[in-house]
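Researcher: Next entry in the queue.
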Amino acid sequence: MTGSTPAPESQTLSFQALIKTNARHSEVVLDESLVRISVKAKPVDGRANKEAVRLIAHALNVPLKSVELVRGVRSRHKYFRVTGLESVPEKLKTLIGVRK
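Model: Structure for this entry, 100 residues:
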């Protein structure tokens, strides 16, 4: 009989972020108490939102479908939910809510 290791418990991460559109560089920055996301895209036809989702997915190493924009489609203040995380960086755990 082969020994199988149990699948790691996935976690859900929910956080609020401030979005800056039409920026020189696209990046995700953890401030003292806020996640700041700068995107090169302009806020036209949801392009900036899509780029923000791509940046978050890349930063947390999850598929795009795991990142959901929950609230703030037309606002600079957005609320995201990321599901299926194997682990969350310690700095993020102290900054934002993590659920199992």
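Model: The chain has one domain: 15-99.
Researcher: Noted, moving on.
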